[in-house]
Specification:
This protein is an alpha/beta fold. It has two domains: 277 residues, Zn peptidases (Aminopeptidase); 204 residues, 3-Layer(bba) Sandwich (Glucose Oxidase, domain 1). Helices cover 28% and strands 28% of the residues. The protein has 15 helices and 26 strands. Helix 10 crosses helix 13. It is globular. The relative contact order is 0.17.
């Protein structure tokens, strides 16, 4: 029998092959499917933070946790443990469209929201954006990395200026250099560009969008940045955010450089070198916008299965429940950003993982099931938990995060987001071999996946953490089909209204992945071991600082 799968511009004919299924344990493809179909439906309105859909989503997850047999694992209020943890957030939304103009010797250039530019609602504590003829300066990749003897600013005072920067690392195009080659470092993330600009007192940032180094198209940038924005509540928000945080289309940058008598591609090449010097773009930018800014309360959802022998030690399964909610309509008029894959699939796993643990033998250590908020707004729910843990991070054995799981049938392999070396990964690989599966390093480390999922919030706090990633070597179709599906999703569905439930999805692969993560969780929850980061990991020192709390509770590795 032939099965034809249509992708963006490619029709791939595949012959169905017998599937030798890995162990799926008690994980039902049908139950996994039902959760995704429910949470990814229009009835849940894209699960936006601080909307009526948040209440509905939380009620669903809590109801499922109760039915699975968990106990409330959230904060304690009036002596009673709750199902949630309150997460205070700063919410900011631009009223109407911002007015943005660039002036140079060639005249004026108006940039329209969502087309040439994507302006984020202000998160610096102000309820308006007011930029008046701020000079524009190109600072390459906007990186200051003393440990790599790299400084794109070269003493340039950018206070009161708007910096124009490239996304990703200086190594991206060449594939080698001081930043680990293709594997993106944190210096390559757009979040870092904004943070560094704020530290230097810049008036704003324009990140030049290019699809390959960003790892997604302009539609994703537009849909993620022109809607309601959130941040954690900060004592000094201006220290973390400039007044004007934006992305611009590559064509805008090319024209901007041309009018300054510069060549954009030549400037990009220069920015790859350590001796790069900032460039005056001989232009100014002005911008005005008003915003509604308020402090709101969102929620993490927390279920608990207490351990029978060491209840003060925890293994955490996590996934984010939020997506983009209701936004601007696409070409078909659809304005609900359902987030079926991203991340109703992760929540479906979390619910069924809870069911499997609750119905099985009680583990020695406690298992926490954490559905976090506001991942799409900057990993905010997990960042808040890591700063305000309900269970001590020093005695958190590890975090197993799931974000956008594989829904395309059984996989021969599996992976994690980004590159990292830690005992937790060694354990995952060992359990995978029991399923007859092999580990593949992230095939696209240049996308910065390690910094884009909630496990990163825990890693920064020293807790061993991974974000599981489905394999790309499919039993039916191999890596050719797996990569084609991934490309189609990124181009056509990621952070777009078309991330909807698909009747062609095959949930057997997700069930196998859930069983693999269950085997790993059981291993962690019933051992006396404390996995650690590799000796050369940037997170090792933080973890080691809390080693005294774990003394006498089993062995550290590495």
């Amino acid at each position: 029998m032939k099965i034809v799968h249509l992708f963006a511009a490619t029709a791939i004919a595949l012959v169905a092959v017998p599937v030798v299924a890995a162990d799926t344990g008690s994980f039902s493809p049908q139950r996994l499917s039902q959760h995704i179909q429910t949470l990814g439906s229009d009835a849940y309105e894209g699960r936006g933070v601080n909307t009526r859909a948040e209440v509905k989503t939380i009620d669903y997850i809590v109801g499922q946790f109760k039915a699975a047999g968990l106990q409330p694992g959230g904060e304690v209020v009036n002596g009673q443990r709750q199902w949630t943890q309150r997460v205070p957030l700063l919410q900011s939304e631009i009223a109407g469209d911002p007015m943005v103009t660039i002036q140079n010797a060639g005249g004026g250039m108006r940039l329209t929201q969502g087309n040439e530019i994507s302006v984020r609602a202000p998160q610096n504590g102000q309820n308006q954006i007011r930029i008046d003829n701020a000079p524009l300066v190109f600072v390459g990749y906007g990186v200051s990395a003393p440990e790599r003897s790299w400084d794109d600013f070269k003493g340039q005072d950018v206070r009161g200026k708007v910096i124009v920067v490239l996304v990703n690392d200086p190594d991206f195009e060449g594939g080698e250099g001081d930043f680990g080659g293709k594997a993106m470092t944190y210096y390559g993330r757009w979040t870092y560009k904004y943070e560094e600009a704020a530290r230097r007192g810049a008036a704003g940032v324009m990140i030049v969008h290019e699809t390959a180094p960003a790892s997604y198209g302009w539609n994703t940038v537009k849909n993620s940045n022109t809607n309601v924005q959130f941040d954690i509540v900060r004592k000094d928000p201006a220290a973390a955010h400039t007044p004007f945080e934006t992305w611009i289309q590559r064509d805008v940058a090319v024209e901007l450089f041309r009018k300054a008598g510069l060549d954009f591609e030549q400037a990009k090449q220069a920015a790859k070198r350590r001796d790069f010097q900032p460039l005056d773009l001989k232009s100014t930018v002005s911008a005005t916008a008003n915003a509604k800014v308020e402090t709101i309360t969102s929620h993490n959802v927390v279920g608990l299965l207490p351990g029978k022998a060491h209840p003060d030690e925890t293994v955490i399964y996590s996934a984010h429940w939020d997506h983009l909610g209701i936004g601007k309509p696409d070409a078909n008029g659809d304005n609900i950003y359902n987030g079926a894959l991203d991340n109703a699939s992760g929540i479906s796993h979390l619910i069924e993982q809870a069911r499997a643990f609750a119905k099985g033998p009680r583990p020695d250590r406690s298992v926490v099931f954490l559905a976090v908020t506001a991942e799409e707004k900057g990993l905010l729910g997990s960042e808040y938990y890591a700063a305000n843990p309900l269970y001590p991070l020093s005695k958190t054995v590890g975090v197993l995060n799931t974000d956008s799981m594989g829904l395309n049938g059984p996989e021969k392999n599996f992976s994690i987001s980004g590159t990292a070396k830690l005992d937790l990964l060694d354990d995952l690989i060992a359990e995978g071999k029991k399923q007859g599966r092999y580990f593949t390093a992230d095939p696209h480390p240049e996308s910065g996946g390690f910094y884009r999922s909630d496990h990163f919030s825990f890693a920064k706090a020293g807790v061993p953490a991974i974000s599981f990633k489905a394999g790309n070597d499919l039993v039916n179709g191999g890596t050719a089909r797996g990569e084609a599906i991934a490309r189609e999703y990124t181009e056509k569905r990621y952070h777009q209204p078309d991330d909807e439930f698909q009747s062609v999805w095959d949930f057997r692969g997700q069930a196998e992945d859930a069983q693999l993560l269950h085997m790993l969780g059981e291993r962690l929850a019933n051992s006396r071991e404390w996995p650690n980061w590799s000796s050369d990991s940037e997170f090792r020192a933080t973890r080691d600082q809390s080693g005294a709390d774990r003394a006498g509770s089993g062995g550290e590795r590495g």
